[in-house]
Amino acid sequence: MGKDKACPVVLRTRQSLEILAFKHPLAGLQLVKGSVEPGESTDAAAIRELQEEAGITGKVIRDLGTWHSASTGHTWAFHQCLIPEDLPDTWTHFAEDDGGHEFQFFWHPLASEPSEEWHQVFKDALEFLKSRLAEI
Q: Quick check: 112 pLDDT over 90?
């Protein structure tokens, strides 16, 4: 089964480990992720999605494994990305996808339970990442 979604994972440590997330104006709280184009590696797709959705340039430093979403039937490839500069606590980025939307970025503490604003598939993805990061 091919990996059809790539998810760049940007982490930082403040009081605890935090993951980069954003609020979609129509679809609640999400992680950056997108489709892998034909012939594209999941690494390359993760970097491209990070640029398109968040407006930041990073490089993949670690493969965090793959996860199959039972609810959507997609297989996600997670890649930890390193960003050269310190990112602000919050910012907005206008993403061209789907006619253009302004995404509001923030840091979600991995230890805290995702609120009802998170779509279930992203709650499941966070759960996978938490257990995966605990192993390494």
A: yes
